[in-house]
Structure of Allantoate amidohydrolase:
Amino acid sequence: MSESFIQSPAAEMIELLEELAAFSAPGEGVTRLLYTPAWKQAQQFLLNRAEAGGLKAYSDSAGNVYGRLDGTGSDGKVVLTGSHIDTVVRGGKYDGAYGVAAAFTALRYLSRVYGPPLRTLEAVSFAEEEGSRFPLTFWGSGNVTGLYDGSEAENCRDAEGMTLREAMTGSSLAGDKSPAPRDDIAAYVELHIEQGIVLERTGTQIGVVSAIAGQRRFAVSVKGTANHAGTTPMGLRHDALAAAAEMIVQLEHSAAEAGEPLVATTGRLEVYPNTPNVIPGEVMFTLDIRHSDGNELEAFCAAAVSAFEEIAKRRGVTVNITARLSASPAPMDRGLSGELESICTRQGRTYRTMVSGAGHDAQLFAPLTRTAMIFVPSRAGISHSPEEYTPPEELAAGLDVLIALLYKLGYEDLNDNGLTPHNTKERWT
Amino acid sequence: MSESFIQSPAAEMIELLEELAAFSAPGEGVTRLLYTPAWKQAQQFLLNRAEAGGLKAYSDSAGNVYGRLDGTGSDGKVVLTGSHIDTVVRGGKYDGAYGVAAAFTALRYLSRVYGPPLRTLEAVSFAEEEGSRFPLTFWGSGNVTGLYDGSEAENCRDAEGMTLREAMTGSSLAGDKSPAPRDDIAAYVELHIEQGIVLERTGTQIGVVSAIAGQRRFAVSVKGTANHAGTTPMGLRHDALAAAAEMIVQLEHSAAEAGEPLVATTGRLEVYPNTPNVIPGEVMFTLDIRHSDGNELEAFCAAAVSAFEEIAKRRGVTVNITARLSASPAPMDRGLSGELESICTRQGRTYRTMVSGAGHDAQLFAPLTRTAMIFVPSRAGISHSPEEYTPPEELAAGLDVLIALLYKLGYEDLNDNGLTPHNTKERWT
């Protein structure tokens, strides 16, 4: 990389994004799964690029990669920024990799323009977030925040039967023990594509995330009576699909009444016996319900369960609702969100405060430290697909906002930048 | 079989039913598919039993088997009674076989008790009705009534790739040319299990069928937009499953409003991509709509299509509705239905007039000749299953009613029994 200042940080970042996209298993889009060769090459590439860029490059035993700019100040705390390097199968170039490329580029830029910071800054490429190889998610940030202690790796197997432990040991980058959780993070900032259609639909450049929505997922089983479609009068039926259909319409109506940011979805549905001339005897369907407020989320789910039970009773079918996943909402730091809004205003960028409906590494940091997320638009909301896309000027806008926030957190007087010791209880009231 | 009169016709029929049930491919229930060894054995068994019972036994080139009692009268017409000998895969003992066993038993009984009839009576075991081996139905009665001319057999293949023609030729019972349609049938009477729950639910012994319902079947394709379940606000969705659910609820409501005998069913539904955290982009579902009145059926279907299009438009999804099957209603002969009601009254049996929601061989005879169907209860409405069952006393009641009607049609003065030359146009007004 040349020493010239002609290349803007945006151009450097976009070049880095393209280089990362090349580290992929063969096939459409980008496939870069935890501890695979493409993954190792990408992380090794980042280590080398960080080193060459003047950052202190290192990795931990889970395979997370860091580029560190030591601060001249003395509180020993770190401002961390980045995202995850892994992808889904046949994913896009931007999901995770954008935040990684932006983080490493931002630090290199700040270092070259302003010299060493007062507070230590670190760019991170988390090893894994998507759960696309092994049946767990956030393996990278989860090890850093103490969600995992390493014992999970023993019995967790991929589709070929290899354990996470074996794959971890086999990777020259990772070790065979999990790293200790970090307690030196003063703030975590993550830049990410929206993976939704709101920014594009409203013509807005930047999303300032107020919270990552909590999630509840359920499996619903409706059991009626299968019977002959021709010979069973309507009034004598216990049609499991008609019952499920009424529940789905009811859920949609309730979600509309609850208003944003409540979202409720039935994504998967199976009918038994699924034959044109047989009244369905059994239906299974899923619920995916999200809200940024834990109480509202809980209340909505309880009301939905009640409503489904009433429908089932009226129709003479049985309904069983099993909870499958429960993730609490993760509020972002108000001080940092406020600072982001100020930055957008100063930079003349349109922005909106919004809830992140998708989960991110940031949700693991939110209970532990001051956390912020910045969104850029996703074309047509497409993600987890080779069609994933954000125009270069929007990618550049996100980088500019990130750089400004990192400057605030890393280079301004420690007493003035609001990063006083973090009190978790205060932030939750 | 002994010459003794000690065995009632009911006991003889039930024994015959058990003997027929033994002719099956291995496995649960009864599997007796067209032109398979089990099928050939059953038809050959019937030929032998008919001969031994004093009937003139013969088969046609499609493999239909007959037992004939020549009448002493001179109009050359035949009163035909029977049903189909084939089954679905893993079916029950009664569907079709009951009508066959009853027909052959009734003729043997009438012959022994009353001697030769005035009008020729024939019991028939139709070769095929279910469509469970080859992709067509009513191969037996369809050849007799002229629905098929034999050309269909050339290109029609089973799951193993064998053509109907090859299978027909390979069966020692059938020939290689289709038989000519018959024009000598003065009346057709079919005794059958209800395959529904109405008789059992209302505690009624006999169903006098007023008509076989017409059927319309459709494939409905709804296309919306697949999107992230977490990041897409409710108001910006084009959820194909929510749209389909509303259509299904609407169809059920309309069917209830229309009242009996209208039945409307969505039996099969498929969601794409069918993933819990993705808003469904596409749904395919089937419609099976039946009514005994052709105009009502048509009007209901047209209204349903209209309603679906309105729902789709309102939701910003597209809907495509393709007709898959269309069968006209088949009214039964009023004179014969009236006679059946009188017989039930005389025999002290509870009965109700009802529409047959399922298709039967009788529907092919209805446009051509005076046709009647008699139902007996099905336990829990179960059919097409090893669990299919009707208690012996109900089977016996059906046989008694059939015997009484055959006596009326075969042994009473030809001028008094109402079987004047058949005028199709009259019967339809």
Q: What stands out?
A: Chain A has a mean pLDDT of 93. Chain A touches chain B through 58 residues (CB under 8 Å). The radius of gyration of chain A is 24 Å. The CA atoms of residues 144 and 181 of chain A lie 5 Å apart.
